[in-house]
Amino acid sequence: MPTSTTILAFALVALGMVLTPGPNMVYLISRSICQGRAAGVISLGGVALGFVFYMFCSALGITALVFAVPYAYDALRLAGAAYLLYLAWQAVKPGGRSPFQVRDLPVDSPRKLFVMGCVTNLLNPKIAMLYLSLLPQFIDPAHGDVLTQSLVLGSVQIAVSVTVNLLLIVAAGSITVFLAGRPAWLLVQRWLMGTVLAGLAIRMATEARR
User: Fold this and answer.
1) CA torsion angle for 171, 174, 180, 182 (degrees, to 10)?
2) For FRET with 182, which of 101, 102, 138, 197 sits at 20 to 30 Å CA-CA?
């Protein structure tokens, strides 16, 4: 088992990661505002499943295989970059809306919400890179079975991410009320989000394979 110090350190790293704007945050906030908190929670369940997938891949060494095959990694990386660019365009295009703006959208079924949450997470190769390059640095064979340590630390990351995203889902409505009477703030928020997402997409698309 990892030491308490190791668990705390990894939890802080996971917290910093989840607070960085990305497709998971955008999707969950958008769904929560458009269809309610229940829809946001269901979508979060799909995101959590994506984290579980990556955790087991890392623990079992499958992720290393993906990174060993250039075309497999590049396909995942470019798909994630394209998705980020799509989200960025949706934010800044003429007539576009902020994810915090209330809008009328078709109501998705719980199954579709869950699947889309999972797909959104799986299309982010940064998560695979986190588990492949960062998590191993917190594992010490002297403290027990490596597989067990990987699963414990992965569970910590999932717990932190799910908790923070759940708070965002709950607060999404309040943020919407705050921004509703402030059009200038909405415009700034849209362009800020679009710029961040586009920057992440460009960095992801041009990043060399490790």
Assistant:
1) -90
2) 197
